[in-house]
Amino acid sequence: MSAPAALPAEPLVLRDDEGGIATLTLNRPQARNALSRALMEALEAELAAVAADESVKVVVLAAHGAAFCAGHDLKEMRAEPGREMYEALFSQCSRLMTAIVRLPKPVIAKVHAMATAAGCQLVASCDLAYAGASARFATPGVNIGLFCSTPMVALSRAVGRKTALEMLLSGRPLSADEAEAAGLINRAVADDELDATVAQMAGTIAAKSPLTLAIGKEAFYRQAEMPLDEAYAYASQVMTENMMARDAEEGIDAFLGKRPPVWQGR
User: Fold this and answer.
1) What is the value of pTM for the model shown?
2) Could you tell me if 27 and 13 are in contact, meaning their C-beta atoms sit under 8 angstroms apart?
3) Which of 5, 82, 141, 251 could form a disulfide with 148 if both were Cys (CB 3.0 to 4.6 A apart)?
């Protein structure tokens, strides 16, 4: 008698689309959604797919299980030690975080539990983030002799230097309320209000012109790294190009005509 066929493995990232909102859910609950190389590859592939999908206006990043994301998969890292593997791993992770920032659609993190190390980096890399009251955020690599240097890049761009360094040097986790006060997340809400809060914000953003969202997101990150005069010169050029778009004409005409706009994405 032949052995029963093995059941296919569940996808590492689940995708659900509704109303112009694509929800990407990390699906390694048994490993606290640790960022294995396979999970990072799957998430990067899904991000590329939604980038090319004109029906998607907003992306929500969520997770299954007892943790939002526990950072890198330490067991995987120690199973194949060596400079070549470490360089490839951290390069892959950096590429994933950069893909979130450069995605021409807003990305909202929905954090229901602990986000540590590269998991905290994932939250900091998203454009917006909302968390349940029981969520916690930490960069505790210092506790195991591995300073969270790559998470530091996103973290230090999301919060003030003193907060970032305290998290990095001590490993102390922030509560959801502390994370809100520090600017790591937009808002901390009751755990049972998290889904509704994120859905409302995602729906509000999804109703905007997709072209305008893409222009604005790219411009925000580019100008943030520029000196003041250069930033204003760049932003002025962006606004000029934006004014030439059909959606800008439609939006202004609709406002003046006291009617809802009809976006064309051009």
Assistant:
1) 0.94
2) yes
3) 141
